[in-house]
Amino acid sequence: MENIVLLLLGLAISAIGIINIKGNINTVHSYNRRKVTKEDAPKYGKTVGAGTLLIGISLILSFVVSLWNEHAMSFIVAPGIVIGLAIVLYGQFKYNHGIF
């Protein structure tokens, strides 16, 4: 139970991802969404939210797996973060036309 922080952080990040998927992109920093048009805002929210949700779910899964085998946590967290960040960066470049 010492990895409860993973669960709490995973739940918080997943909640932010769900909020973004629903179209509310106010949780994204203003400089990361300043070039996103009104028409692209829902698509941007879904893309960034999907990446964020993937990161959150990987943290939650790593908590669950840590109850049986702590060594396996890194095999869940690392790919989840890398793939999630790749999805977020894809959304940044496609809809914001750059990182900033």
Architecture overview:
This protein is mainly α. The chain has one domain. The chain has four helices and no strands. It has helices spanning 4-21, 30-33, 41-66, 74-95. Helix 1 packs antiparallel against helix 3 (41-66) and helix 3 (41-66) packs antiparallel against helix 4. The longest helix is centred in the middle third of the chain and has 26 residues, at 41-66. The chain is elongated and about 45 Å long. The mean pLDDT is 94.
Helix-strand layout with pairing:
Layout: H1 4-21, H2 30-33, H3 41-66, H4 74-95
Helix pairs in contact: 1-3, 3-4
Question: Please, what is the average pLDDT?
Answer: 94
Radius of gyration from the CA trace? 15 Å
* Helical coverage, percent range: over 70%
Count of DSSP H/I helices: 4
Main sheet characteristics? none
**Beta-strand fraction estimate:** under 5%
Task: Estimate nothing, just give the exact number of structural domains.
Answer: 1
End-to-end C-alpha gap: 39 Å
By secondary-structure content and strand pairing, the structural class works out as mainly alpha
Helix-strand string? HHHH
The unreliable regions are none
